[in-house]
UniProtKB/TrEMBL annotation:
GO MF terms held by the record: flavin adenine dinucleotide binding; monooxygenase activity
Name of the protein this chain belongs to: Predicted flavoprotein CzcO associated with the cation diffusion facilitator CzcD
Keyword Cell membrane: no
Oxidoreductase keyword on record: yes
InterPro entries, per the entry: Auxin_biosynth/cation_transpt, FAD/NAD-bd_sf
Keyword line: Oxidoreductase
SUPFAM superfamilies linked to this entry: FAD/NAD(P)-binding domain (SSF51905)
Length: 360
């Protein structure tokens, strides 16, 4: 019963860019961190998903992290970070300093396993460290824990190595191998750059033709498409498919020398390589699946928020089916800029909901 469980006004699941931004705004709007607003994260350290990214990933032309709200007040900015250091170290250190400067009291490691009706109008948040009752739930659990791998005939019989983006550690793990990189986003191109000269050969495979562009309008269109899908409760589209890849000198030179020239999707995986529909075959020893992610929402399943279309209906970061549930960093908010904006929009609605008379 509720006796065993602590209580909160709002529980935030996840302390990545989205969860921290929400927590900062809630604090500013008067909720006491750690008491009224409790942030839970299953990770061992600050940094959200960034703490787990591969060693070679840098904040550069392809990867830019937006400053969190209030970050400049405490003398921190990603804009002046040392771009030669691994992004995962920079982000972990900055989030750590941020959490401490604003005393956000993130509880970790705490894994949320299920969110269900408490029976008294509140929600019961079950974790591997006990349960919490709350009036509002803000889910900011990101996507890193749910890499998506498309189905291909023969994949189980492949004799080589297969990894998805979260399992990728370093190019040296693929030294001397013939490597296929699947996927049309910046993770895929990053891997190809790193593998050049280390792997014996690389082949790049994408579902759609690749577009290198500097057009900022492409990003706006991709966010709009994600917003339309979220409002309709459809599965979310791929962001990189909509934005195109950055037309940096490094990428354009790699296109010139043949490194970043994509082949269309193969039709089947054979024990020793890839087979295309036209009969052509490419022997490979390893496949890296940089094929995107899905939102990690299994812990919300008891609330029954899913639509028959396969997604959740979300408007302005709020679940249409349950006004006590917010999704920060979901769909159109799935970038560090989007996650920041989500913080403000979601926190405002949370506070309005909490101030409304009970039962509303
Ligand atoms: P996350 O950072 O994933 O945080 C979610 C947190 O929730 C994690 O700390 C996790 O431990 C926790 N969590 C999840 N489930 C549970 C649970 N059940 N219980 C408790 N805790 C839980 N965006 C950009 O704007 N710029 C970039 O350069 C950029 N580069 C990227 C590179 C890669 C390889 C990838 C995959 C994505 C990149 N993105 C980039 C998108 C990026 O994911 C977002 O920008 C942003 O970091 C996501 O923040 P978030 O808070 O939504 O998620």
């Amino acid at each position: 019963g509720p006796g065993e469980a602590g209580g909160a006004e709002a529980v935030v699941v996840g302390a990545g860019q989205a969860g921290l931004s929400v927590a900062w705004h809630l604090r500013r709007m008067g909720l006491v961190p750690g008491e009224d607003a409790v942030v839970l994260d299953r990770g061992p350290a600050p940094g959200g998903a960034w703490q787990f990214r591969w060693e070679a990933l840098r904040l550069d032309d392809a990867h830019k992290v937006e400053d969190l709200p209030g970050m400049r007040e405490i003398g921190l900015s990603f804009a002046t970070a040392d771009g030669a250091r691994p992004a995962r170290d920079i982000v972990r250190e900055y989030y750590d300093r941020y959490e401490r400067a604003f005393d956000l009291r993130v509880r970790r490691p705490v894994r949320v396993t299920a969110v269900r009706e408490a029976g008294d109008g509140r929600l019961r948040v079950e974790t591997d460290r006990g349960a919490l009752l709350t009036r509002v739930l803000v889910n900011a659990s990101g996507t890193w824990g749910r890499p998506f791998r498309p189905y291909f005939a023969g994949a189980a019989g492949f004799r080589g190595v297969q990894v998805s983006t979260p399992q990728y550690r370093a190019a040296r793990d693929f030294a001397g191998l013939r490597v296929a990189v699947v996927g049309g986003g910046t993770s895929a191109t990053g891997f190809l750059h790193e593998l050049e000269g280390v792997a014996a050969a690389t082949v790049w495979v994408t579902r759609r033709p690749v577009r290198f562009t500097d057009d900022p309008g492409a990003g706006v269109a991709a966010v709009r498409q994600a917003d339309e899908a979220a409002r309709a409760g459809r599965p979310l589209p791929s962001i990189s498919g909509g934005t195109g890849l950055p037309a940096t000198p490094r990428n354009l030179a790699a296109v010139e020398r043949g490194l970043l020239v994509a082949r269309p999707m193969f039709a089947a995986i054979e024990p020793d390589g890839l087979r295309w529909a036209d009969g052509s075959f490419e022997p490979v020893d390893a496949i890296i699946w940089a094929t995107g992610f899905r939102s990690e929402l299994t812990h919300l399943a008891p609330l029954g928020l899913r639509e028959p279309e396969g997604g959740l209906r979300v408007e302005q970061g709020r679940a249409v089916r349950d006004p006590r549930v917010f999704l920060a960093g979901y769909g159109p908010q799935a970038s560090t800029i989007g996650a920041n904006r989500a913080g403000r929009t979601v926190a405002r609605q949370v506070v309005e909901h909490l101030r409304a008379p009970a039962g509303v």
